[in-house]
Amino acid sequence: MKNKYLGFCMLLLCLNMNNSFGQKLKEEKISYSYNRLPSATIAGVKNYQVVAEAAYEAKNKQLLADYKEQKKEAIDKYNRELAVYANLVKTANESYGKAMAEYNKKTVGKKIVEQSLLASGKPQKEIITKPYLESVEQPKLQSVYDYNTILSTYVKLEGYQPDPSNALKIVVLFYGFDHTQPRSIGEEMTNVSSGSGKTSTYKSIVYHTEFSYRHPMAVKVYDPSGKEVLSVTPPELNSYKIYKSGNSDRQLMSNNELLIKQNEERVLQVNLAFINNLLNDKYGYSSVKRDATLNYIKNGDSEYPDLTMAFNEASSGLLMLQQDGPSAVVKLKNANEIWNKALTESDLSNKKARINKEITMAIYFNLLECQFAVGDALGGQNTLGKLNSLSMTNNERRLKLDYDILFAELKKRQSIN
Known about the structure:
The protein has 417 residues and is of the alpha+beta class. Among the domains are: 147 residues; 120 residues. It has a 5-stranded mixed beta sheet. Strands 5, 6, 7 and 10 form a 4-stranded antiparallel beta sheet that branches. Strand 8 and strand 9 form a beta hairpin. The radius of gyration is 41 Å and the shape is elongated.
């Protein structure tokens, strides 16, 4: 009995030690913005201007000119035929009048004889067909925009001033909205109904409106000397996509013209946002939003006051990075110093150690996030190098790979700038 009691006490002691040294790691999702350097740079240039080229405008003008010419020709032809028509009617009326006068001079008997023997009776007035104005169908023109307004709204090169002097010249090329005609499509659906404890299936037809579309665009960039430094036609903007409305149990009677117009305007905005992101990734000094994760220890104030301090410094530093950069960097560096000091206690083989393997890995990933946020490419590479010597779970390996890519890109951008 005494031995059983002693064993029970030892078990309680082990449990207490595990609770004392066991770590309850938690994650905190933090969204912050960091400053991203451009992936290409033009030395000495701080201004930009954006202009539009709409290749279809010339086609629009030609279609309008052709329409006006065809309409004029139709009117001229109608007027000529109308003048001839008036003369033909006049001549026909005169001929009919003379014929009737001659006819009226004849006796009744002669009229009867001529009608029975010669098959000629009372004269008939000639019917002259009145000419008509031929209809000329109006051309379907591509939409024309207030390009200065729309480009100044959606295309802004961060870190530059909108000024045409000594500027990067950005030319956005519009090729016009292209689409098929909307059509209503019916699909057979299998439905399940239940009642009285039984289930059954039945068929029904649902309808939706569908059409294909694209709004192709391209972008070119010239340096202040006029040299072309970028020319790209993004395939994302030039491939067809499919619009599909929601399902309805009855055939849809939609206003196709309005439907097309609404989608054209929406796609125009989406495509210009895409071009804006492309340009800022290439040349802009951008503020980029990032969703990150920081690790902390739940209820760790008593055993981990240092790590609690580091987490608080890091989280507040990340959040204030854009509002007060210098103060934020100080906080992030303080957090890094605390974490690096804690890593000197790391004991990967002892689960009961204050800084055991689980805590060690959490600190390394916290370090990587903060090093990336302040642009410390060298520090990040060193941290990644230390992680390479450690065994990791699949999730940890995937997370490390994400940071490998982030720091490789950061190093590349820094080398260019």
